[in-house]
Please model this.
Amino acid sequence: MNRRLNRRRSTPPGALDRLATLIPATPGASEATGTPPSTAVVGGGIAGLAAAVALAERGVKVSLFEREATLGGRVAGWSTQLADGSSVTMSRGFHAFFRQYYNLRSLLRRTDPRLEGLTPLPDYPLWHANGMRDSFRHVPRTPPWSALGFAVRSPTFSLGDLPRMNARAALALLDVRVPEVYDRLDSVSAHDFLDAIRFPEAAHHLAFEVFSRSFFADPRRLSAAEMVLMFHIYFLGSAEGLLFDVPNDPFPTALWDPLAQYLEKLGADIHVSQPVDHIASSPDGGFTLTAGTDSEHYDACVLALDTTGLQQLLARSPGLAAPSWYDRIARLKTAPPFLVSRLWLDRPVAADRAGFLGTSGYGGLDNVSVLERWEHEAHNWSRRTGGSVVELHAYAVADKADPTIEQDGLIDQLHRVYPETKAARIIDARHEWRQDCPLFSVSGYKDRPTVRTSNPRLMVAGDLVRTGLPVALMERAATSGTLAANALLEQWRLRGHELWTVPVRGRGPVERQLARWTRTP
Model:
């Protein structure tokens, strides 16, 4: 990807890291004149919304297609009615909006300039079933003091552990660059990489496994390159810290409904509950898109789908790009199933419980959220009924696991973590089973698509895309959507949108020199 990176003293709105890296906008006209170009954006998740907004703001005629009834993709929400008659919003579970998510936050600022729809959580505690406890509340933000502060404060590290660690391997974490990190580490699993460093076993399970499982994958199947990039983004390469914000209303109310209204004011057409059946290339270089009984011509197309959705649509739409590209897309893998269980309890959890808790060693339970700690809807239900709204996550569930056993197991583990919940009656429950997250498998990077394809008017966006930038998860989705839009805007001589990332390499000369030592024989 051709791009020019620039560091300057100014930073994105609300950011603290003076070394945040700017990817400047390409020059061009601020708005299309005459008959504007048209683009179909297929997929209404974060990537699709980012692409649609970036295009519509430059006067491009945008049609956004989403197969589900609501926008937001894996951060969507929908209404449901509880056994007590309450109307509430269900979702696919907790999402952390880290301060490093510069481009996602820029997208949200279109309708919420001060990000008043987000609430900071005061801590990110981690508990292990063996009694170990960790926290990031008082850890310094700026590397390398963040790493040193965590090690000094954490009960999982001791002075006796240091001589046993492989310092040469560990120092590679200090200067992470994209795509070089994939060249070096994509063929190694996250589990084997941590073993090579010889981190203390307790730290391996409590801290690092909690992070790696946030990719919905067992560390033995996850690329070490992806995990090392994650450490750079969230911990060793960024001064934004590991604390995060959460929406203080359900996702549709806080995030996507306002953004949909903003898009419609820009002239975009939004089609929900409208899957795209087929896309065909047109003689003029554009595309004919068929959705249901309707077919429409577009000058360009952005595919912002999950792995399975992308594969299925391309199987029905041959000839859009080079055959080798189709072959690579067909080889992409989806992460194992995950479970989100939300429980409405008839009594509160203890008042000192954290809003969000990461767990390890509690069977399949990976984290616990107490929603009334931050979400208005849950808080109002809790105040009215005297109960609590608790959410449980299980990442990377075995493919052939029995759903009932897994659901009951999460509730049993909740009783271990928060014993007061054992006496609570479950007024109602919702169990969401999904399997649509990308698997960043060992040696899988080469097959992941880039934003651009061999067809100059066909772009791909989403968290499965390799961007050549230090971004992950929701931020990768938002960044890739904007990159896809920028690639089209450049062709039409329209001005692009600037992007920001955490530093694209180690933060200082000392760290980079130490990391360089690890690369020499």
The first strand starts at residue 6 and ends at 7. The chain has a mean pLDDT of 90.
